[in-house]
Amino acid sequence: MDLINSESNKKSYRTFIHNIGWNLVGQIAPLIAAVVSIPLLIKGLGVDRFGILTIAWMLIGYFSLFDLGIGRALTQIISEKLATNKGKDIPPLMWTGLTVMFVLGLIASLLIVGLSDWIIYSGLKIPVYLQDETKSSLSMLAPSIPLVLLATGLRGVLEAKHEFKSVNLVRIPLGVLMFVAPLCVLPFSNSLVAIFFSLLLVRAFTAIAFFFLCYRSMDNFTEFSLSRAVVPELLKFGGWMTVSNIVSPIMVQMDRFVIGMMLSMAAVAYYATPYEMVTKLLVIPAAIAGVCFPQFAKLNAQKNTKEAMTLYWKSCKYIFYLIFPAVIFVIFFAGWILHLWLGGKFSDESTRVFQILAIGVLANGLAAIPFAFLQGAGRSDITAKVHVCELFIYLPLLYFSVSKLGIVGASLIWSLRVFVDGIILHRMVGMVATKNIG
Length: 438
What we know:
single chain; 16 helices; mainly alpha
């Protein structure tokens, strides 16, 4: 019998719902902090400095995926090991994965430092008076990358153990601090160097907290061992994840780079601000998919396709019911929201972008569950191949649309891409499920 309706599994279902609840709170709390903090940050930093800060947030997000997919692989493989009573295999798998991720983070840090001159003086249209300050700030940003990757791996271990409550008791305060810490700096300085240093401290505290939680929740966490033999197992799943980790953020974030190169830092702010606001609705599918992913991995290991598909369709339905009303509200009241939140100038420049992106967010949210299903089933190769095919179509269309329609064009192409992506992934789930049943 399936996960939802089976009498014997009601306790598991309640735990599943509670985990989604914790995930939602863990993601909504930073959203509230962002809504309150962003207008104050724009006022305190100015539009140009704030535009640079949004690029920095984007760089952290992109390079945090520079882990060869090992963070996601740890969750998937450890979930399978636990489901098949192979817990003794976990310590070498875990420690090897965490070590490799930390080293990759160090490499990514050096890459940021090495590319800093190109980013500042050639890649982006940064005002001359901010170029030296931005370069110094990037040297403060770089050390956060290995900390971010280490925290990602540790969180993956915890989520494989379904420790969603503990994870979010860390994510809530530290996620809020990602926005509040820069605000605390503003009374003393509006320098980006000081702002970026505050973000570095938050990342360090996050990694330390997740390390402590792993120590507390895993009986064999202290059994430190490294093994070359587990690397192929990690890379089999993580290799294709790496492709997605490189390609997907390019498609998600490249719009800001193209706008910054072709238009201005102010245009980046006018696009990125409604983008950051409306895409926060994706905390809902992210919370649900985050809990579904280890569950899909477990059900796949147990060859229970029927239960997995029941969970799949119910999760898609919940996402639609929760996001659709919010999207309709944004479409009708986008101008009023922006005027109330950020003033008339932002409302004039960003209202249409806000409305178009809201439609795309609904499609993107529904794609979260097929993405989690395919990767939980160990088919990260499918999502990677889909993303690579999309990339070669998306980038030229993005460049063309920005050149013709500015930031409105960027929002149109982004929304079209995520709509097509969702349709393809849903069809792929049907194919994989049919094959598993057969």
